[in-house]
Amino acid sequence: MKIGIIGTGMVGASIGSKLIELGHEVKMGSRTANNEKAVKWHSVGGANASQGTFADAAAFGEIIFNCTKGDGALDALKAAGEKNLNGKILVDVSNPLDFSKGMPPSLYPALSNTNSLGEEIQKIFPGAKVVKALNTMNCLLMVNPAMVSGSHDLFMCGNDEAAKAKVTEIVKSFGWTSIIDLGDITAARATEGILPIWVRLMMKYQSPNFNFKIVK
Question: 2-205 is classed in which CATH architecture?
Fold first, then answer.
């Protein structure tokens, strides 16, 4: 499968590399076609790795992963181009965290409680099939759940059932076995809202290598 990655940070590199390992063709997109991080990732990615602009990656991919920081997500996706996203699954991994006052970050008020970044993306790109997933954990754990012992959970939400089923297939190929579908894209308010406590736990334990498990 051809997959586009929007973003060149640790999240994009981790997901992109895992997808290549699983046999997919992956194009990493950035603001410029010769982005230094994208060039480095491409150089070690092998024949199935390529790079380009946000628009290049979005046009290339049958499925798109938005791996940008939350404060730049909407601008990056606008640069990717609505026509390149229409009809495609858009997996949103970003979180609307405001680091302007340092650590710990807060959620942007306009994107919490009664709204979310996932919902904003779906509103601005109505032709895309937005699925919120993988945003409640460290990027290395996203693609290797065995880093944390025992069973633990991945949360997912979105309006399109077939899109969620396809994303479920992908994350199962990463090794996930416990996937909780929380319903439509408004559930992104809840999964994005987990991040403040996630950051506090990371600060307390001085490690990002943990996850949540729902016990009932």
Answer: 3-Layer(aba) Sandwich (3.40)
